[in-house]
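Input/output pair, single chain:
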Amino acid sequence: MSSKKGSKGKSQQSSTWDQLLQPKEQKPKSCIEDILKKLPPSYPVGAIFLNGLLVPVAAISNVCDCCAYFIGEDGQVVVVDAGKVEGISFGEAEAEEEEEENGGC
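Output:
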């Protein structure tokens, strides 16, 4: 007898190649990315969190594929990986200098 298995005898596990070739839509997304995709253009956003850092922005522009586009406080476009945004602040982000002037900690 031959020890070879035909195509019908293949195991049901997907190979590494099959996993790499999956369309991006099938890969898990973060809940923050889902929220970003639902926000309308020009929706006011105070700041986003990337790698634990607060990044002040004025509004979201749009989300396309895996990139999120924001309008910075200075009017410049800020592009980030939508899957790496850890949090969103919808209030205005205050600078540390303003907090110190107002007697904040």
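The chain has three helices and seven strands. The radius of gyration is 22 Å.
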